[in-house]
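Hey L., structure's done. Input below.
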Amino acid sequence: MIEAAISYTGDVSDAERKKYSLQYYLNVAEELVKAGTHILGIKVNIPRKVAHTTFANNISILNQY
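Output:
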């Protein structure tokens, strides 16, 4: 059993972010799942519910694996 975690504190709903954008975190999550991760934990420490909802809605694309 392989467990991995992603932790983010930034505002992933900010389209101007270049380095740690929503797409960056989605790519990391996808690579972890492709590598065989069974459990993927996501730690969210952000004050903006919009950013959390944005990430949570997009992470569901990993259900295909």
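The helical segments are 22-34, 49-59. The longest strand covers residues 3-8.

-- N.
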